[in-house]
TrEMBL record:
Residues 242-364 form the NfeD integral membrane domain. Keywords: Membrane, Transmembrane, Transmembrane helix. This is Nodulation protein NfeD. InterPro entries: ClpP/crotonase-like_dom_sf (IPR029045), Membrane_assoc_protease (IPR052165), NA-bd_OB-fold (IPR012340), NfeD-like_C (IPR002810), NfeD1b_N (IPR056738), NfeD_membrane (IPR056739). It comes from Thermococcus piezophilus.
């Protein structure tokens, strides 16, 4: 009897063992899309930590980036190499890239996969913009450091170190097919499921912390997607330097327009929000305080042109200062960027166009508004003559009317009652009281009050 009981227990245990193994075979998938900034470091750390807590078989990072800050890249590489689970960098989707800083991150991972139609490479360091608007190339000692750093990442993982060096010295990029051919990546996969099937049984290119190189068991794994938070989504957009720069300037415009046209409060409220978002985005990407001060000075010049027209002198000064500030804004002294030249060329165009539009806006638009407000203020009582409004408190003969959205004390010129809701026209002003008649009536035919 005991023998039969033990046999049944063993059979049940054998049947349940594969199921338990399958349930434990879990792969986490997260997405990193956009510039590599200080915030991206937090994202990588959070995603990898989640996979470590769950003792996942691996975590796949879907990466699509044009590059970013060099210091952030190095922190991410260190976090990957200290991960307790294999980190697979998957350049995805088709049309995406792992350029500049993304190349270093990929070469520092345990396994690299790419989707068809993606590229990797082109990671020469630069120092941002100079005061003359040209891209500041990193000096030889910095370039040589990153060459040695990338070669070490490639050699440590048994990847093509010669091609890795060309990514810097020649700004070379390769397609997924070329990357596979030259030994930079191990897998080309159309999607995550395809990647799981193709990478199953492969060995990581570098050891996982606390273990030697790990053989990946990914086939039929349970996939857990780590969805980005709302904050992640917002930060992703505002850390794009072009978007952050535009937000910063729209914020300045909103504040100025609100202060010059008080009473509505909407422009300055929206402007303040945009200004803060722009500063947050630039803070993650990195910016020069000197550039920000020059932009503020340019805004002061524009305001001076609007308040005291100088036949374009302040407008020209503001436009030139604005362009200088914009270019210097992305030259954070002493820090290196790993981004494509194309990004800075786009920024240059945005900075110049924005400066010209702002100059025209303040030279003509704001100046016209302020002149119009001054003209109305100088007209005094004549400003209200002929205005049409509606009675909100019966005139018998005095009451209240609403004109231009404002309430005024009013008096019927004829002395006859005018009911609530009737439309009236202003024919005279006595102190702060409007003298009105029904709309359509001729005041000359009526007696004076």
């Amino acid at each position: 009897m005991r023998f039969k009981t033990a046999l049944i227990v063993l059979i049940l245990f054998a049947m349940l063992l594969p199921t338990a193994h399958a349930q434990g075979n879990t792969v986490y998938v997260a997405k990193i899309d956009g510039m590599i900034t200080g915030y991206t470091v937090d994202q990588f750390d959070r995603y990898i930590t989640e996979a470590e807590k769950a003792n996942a078989s691996a975590i796949i990072i879907e990466l699509n980036t044009p590059g970013g800050r060099a210091d952030a890249m190095q922190e991410i590489v260190m976090r990957i190499q200290n991960a307790k689970v294999p980190v697979i960098i998957y350049v995805y989707p088709s049309g995406g890239m792992a350029a500049s800083a993304g190349t270093y991150i990929a070469l520092g991972s345990h396994l690299i996969a790419m989707a068809p139609g993606t590229v990797i490479g082109a990671c020469r360091p630069i120092l941002g913009y100079g005061a003359n608007g040209s891209i500041v190339e990193a000096p030889p000692k910095i370039v040589n450091f990153y060459i040695a750093y990338l070669r070490e990442l490639a050699e440590m993982s048994g990847r093509n170190a010669t091609l890795a060096e060309q990514f810097i010295t020649e700004d070379r990029s390769v397609t997924s097919q070329e990357a596979l051919k030259y030994g930079v990546i191990k897998v080309i996969a159309t999607n995550v499921n395809d990647l799981l099937q193709k990478a199953d049984g492969m060995e990581t290119k570098v050891p996982v912390k606390g273990r030697e190189k790990v053989v990946l068991h990914l086939r039929d794994a349970r996939v857990v997607y780590l969805e980005p938070s709302f904050k992640d989504t917002v930060i992703r957009y505002i850390t794009d330097p072009t978007i952050a720069y535009v937000l910063l300037n729209l914020g300045f415009i909103g504040l100025i327009f609100g202060f010059l046209t008080p009473g509505w409060h909407v422009p300055e409220t929206i402007g303040a929000i945009m200004l803060v978002l722009g500063l947050i985005g630039l803070g993650y990407f990195g910016y020069s305080s000197a550039g920000l001060l020059l932009i503020a000075l340019a805004i002061i010049f524009f305001i001076a042109e609007a308040l005291t027209p100088t036949f374009g002198l302040f407008t020209v000064a503001g436009t030139i200062t604005f362009i200088l500030g914009g270019t210097m804004l992305f030259g954070k002294g002493g820090d290196e960027y790993l981004v494509s030249d194309a990004l800075y060329e786009t920024l240059r165009i945005v900075i110049i166009v924005t400066a010209i539009l702002l100059g025209l806006f303040f030279a003509f638009g704001v100046t016209t508004v302020i002149k119009d407000r001054k003209r109305k203020a100088q007209t005094g009582r004549e400003e209200m003559l002929g205005e049409v409004g509606r009675v909100v408190q019966e005139l018998n003969p005095e009451g209240m009317v609403k004109i231009r959205g404002e309430l005024w004390k009013a008096e019927s010129k004829t002395g006859k009652p005018i009911r609530v809701g009737e439309r009236v026209r202003v024919v005279n002003v006595r102190g702060l009281t409007l003298i009105v008649v029904r709309e359509g009536e001729n005041p000359d035919d009526e007696r004076e009050v």
